[in-house]
Amino acid sequence: MKSSKITFTNHNGATLSGRMDLPLEQDPHNFAIFAHCFTCTKDFSAVRNVSKALASQGFGVLRFDFTGLGDSEGDFADTNFSSNVDDLVSAATFLAKEYKAPSLLVGHSLGGAAAIFAASEIESIQALATIGAPSNPIHVKKQFGEKAETIVEDGQATVSLAGRDFTFKKQFLDDLEKQSCEQAAAKLDGKALLIMHSPQDATVSIKNAEEIYHAAKHPKSFVTLDGSEHLLIDKKNAAYVGKVVAGWAARYIDIPLQEEIKSSHQVVASLDDEDTFTTLLKLGNHYSKADEPVRLGGDDYGPTPYELVSGGLASCTAMTLQMYARRKGWKIRNVEVHVSYGKKHAIDCDDCENENAKIDTFTREIKLIGDLNEKQVKRLLQIADKCPVHKTLHSETQIITSIIE
């Protein structure tokens, strides 16, 4: 994914810090906002990994630090659950102005609870996913332990959470007491809700997911995160969450379908005028893109045409070498074939001073990992020149072109 720093202003005038995660090989088809867990930040591993997985599925994802956390301005002691909801609404306003109004909202833990409330206030949101969210925000009070009484009696107290000290005021608890995710979920007005929760969650029990699910109206879905812990530390679990959310959301938000190209030929290329150089390819039964670098006016959403040709030579060489080695009973654990394309003067060039004397040149370097002797390596180098694509590039070829009516 491509990730860049962004900032925006919340309703109190504080500057909030975020990152915009974008897909590598296309413009985002939709934008999403990620609400991080209680006292976490935009750079927490679960936030990064879920966002990365969503970006890989074509989403642009805004993840940001709530007021007073991470790199965002503001005094955390003056924030509460309601201010988190307001920050999410401000993030949606920023996206609508600078990019495109978000259609998907994703929240983790208390951020999931905040997302349920914010979804009703953000008109463009069509789908909402929560991860390990409490059914009532007051649930986080138990993390304060004995300090909860101190907050009530003295008006504030410093609480150590995950090795960091945070100051909480009584207004924080008072605000939590007023909130109910069950009531908020019942008011989503047709916005699709996905509830994801682990039965092994020791921080927020799965009973919370049940309460939210029963309170919400359809369309609603539940996916178990069996084997996962509350904070989604495991990268595989976080990536799974992102991909499931993307797949589920496709049912409820407008995601353009992959353009289908029909042809009797092995390869088809299709390019619309507004796409400049970004060309859709159908290679057999597989779709890909070709493009040019940004410096040449492209968007760099795919390899260049010559990189595709080089890729054909490299992959064919690797396949040919492994196939030959297997037939001979030689063990090659891995073959790497590095190929570059350019125009160079031919060896023993008679007219090297003339620029037009340069010819198309593919530079190929091969790395063999295995138990091979010098004689075997020498033979494999000869076999590399016998790969079908190598032969094609060296032979006289013809291209027969006609117009399809």
Automatic annotation (TrEMBL):
Residues 47-133 form the Serine aminopeptidase S33 domain. Pfam families: Hydrolase_4 (PF12146), OsmC (PF02566). SUPFAM superfamilies: alpha/beta-Hydrolases, OsmC-like. This is Putative redox protein. It comes from Marinirhabdus gelatinilytica.
